[in-house]
Structure formats: C-alpha cells, structure tokens
C-alpha cells in the first residue's frame, strides 16, 4: 500500500490541488463587523436550516480521512494529494460555520430532533470509494445551491461573503468528483450503476424529509424549499449525464432513467438494494436505541466509525 516514490504526473486532480493551495482563506479573513441582515427570529431559522449543511461539512471531512487509505491502496496518488486539500476545505467550512453559530448566538438542531440527518450521512457511507465520491458530489451540489442563494442575494452581508468563498471551494470539489466518477463509471458493470442511481434517489428522498421538517424556517428567511429541491434535482441530473451514469435526456436509454425526487417518503420500507450491515466492525444504525438519547456524540460516533469500503472493493 505504501509507495515511497509514487507517480505524481500532472493531471486534473493535481491541478485542482494546486488551485486549492493558492485559494486558501479562513474565517479570520471575513469582516465580522459586516451586517447579518437577519432579525433574531431569522437568525434562529438560519441556524436550523444550516444544520444539515453544517453536519455535511463534518461528515465530508471525516469521510475523506477514511477514504484516503483506500485511494493509496488503489495507487491513486494524485487523488490522494487532492483529497488532502479537500479535507482542508471542509475543515475550513466547518470552522467558519461554527464561528457563525457563535456570532449569531444560535445552535444547530440536535440530531435526535432530526434523525433524517443521521440517516443521510449513514447512507453516504455505504459502499466503496466510488459510492462515496458520488454521494459527496450530490452533497456538494446541495451545498453549492444553498450557498449560492446567499452569495447572490446578500453579497455585502457576512453570510453572503462567507458563502461566496465556500462556493469557490465547492467548484473544485465538483470538478474533482466529475473527473473521478467519469473515469470510474466507464469501468463499472450495470449492477453498480444501478446502485449509484438508487443511492441518488435515496439521498434525495431524505433531503425531502429534511425539507418538510424545515419548511417554516425556510419561509421565515424567504427560502423556497420546493424550488430549491427542484433546482438541485435538475443539477444532479445534469451531472449524472456528464459522468456517464445516465443517458442524455434525448439519448438512447434515457426512457429507462428512474424518476428522481419521488414524492412518497417512506424511509422505513424494506429496501432490498441496501447492503446488509452484517460486519461486526461496523456499528449498526438500528442499534442507536442503545445510545444515550441526549448525547449527540453517540450519533457522531456512529458516523465516524462506519466503514466506507466493501471487502471486495479494489
Ligand atoms: Fe464544504
Ligand atoms: Fe465540498
């Protein structure tokens, strides 16, 4: 697994790494005296709506750390180097949002009050590194669409400026995921492609559940959650075509595409495509009844210790 002198040839991933190195920033570069342009009630709603994004930043950071050895094992040296810059980006977003919470005197929604967040991040961690990159692309598109609204609507305000900086990082993350997945998908069997489409649909359903729980908060800050999800769904569909997962809308086979953003939310129904969680090394979500209901750390422990790679993966 360990290669002392790997081939770090110039490719797009190494280029994205260099771009990331030159585009560093931190929360200390923001002007914290800038107006927030939110009332106290709106700050509370923003803090609640930000919660899935905030957990997403942490989950991306932890997931990248777990997947790094898998890329090393596969000899994907430039992907490894890129991923280190990705972790720095996600760490920066996590730190900046934490500071924003303190600045607004708000807190995220406890995970026990919105378990769909945990379900989302558990779903993201099923499968191998290709599944993970696909899930991260979907999450990055979610983050991009979310931050874009504030970067456009309030560019002079504190959160608008923060959003603009995060968006620059997210554009590199999308470029990485598009490139990595396009190369990987070309070699995957039809069964694996079907799994990736199912994962997309599962994640979108969970997002819809989160949206229904946050509808009032969205209204309070003038965020049209339905339009947001529709736009996100279109965005994901375009990337699915770009990476070769789906046929173009008018191309051959396009009529076989699964409908996205199903309107029925039934997360408890049996899903035969879910890979069974039988390994003793992997904590079971179903076992969370054993955890302390008042302790978010228990839930994060489940996220942190999930395995990313299937035994048969390369
Ligand atoms: Fe991020
Ligand atoms: Fe990201």
Can you describe this structure in just a few lines?
This protein has helices at 12-22, 40-73, 77-104, 116-124, 129-153, 158-185, 190-213, 215-220, 225-242, 296-305. With 314 residues, the protein is an all-alpha fold. One fe (ii) ion binds at residues 57, 60, 90, 93, 143.
Task: Please explain how this structure is put together.
This protein is 61% helix and 0% strand. With 314 residues, the protein is mostly helical. It has one domain: Ferritin, core subunit, four-helix bundle (Ferritin, Up-down Bundle). The C terminus is likely disordered. Helix 1 runs antiparallel to helix 6. It contains ten helices and no strands. It is globular and about 50 Å long. The structure holds fe (ii) ion (2 copies). The site of one fe (ii) ion has 5 residues, from helix 2 and helix 3.
Low-confidence stretches: 255-294, 302-314
Given the structure, what is the number of helices?
10
Major sheet: none
CATH architecture: Up-down Bundle
Strand runs, count = 0
Distance from first to last alpha carbon: 12 Å
CATH superfamily: Ferritin, core subunit, four-helix bundle
Say which molecules are bound, naming each kind only once.
Answer: fe (ii) ion
The fold-level CATH name is Ferritin
Order of helices and strands: HHHHHHHHHH
Determine the fraction of residues in helical runs and give it as a percent range.
Answer: 55-70%
Whole-number total of structural domains = 1
Shape: globular
**According to CATH, what is the class?**
Mainly Alpha
Beta-strand level of the residues, as a percent range? under 5%
Mean pLDDT: 84
Radius of gyration: 19 Å
Structural class: mainly alpha
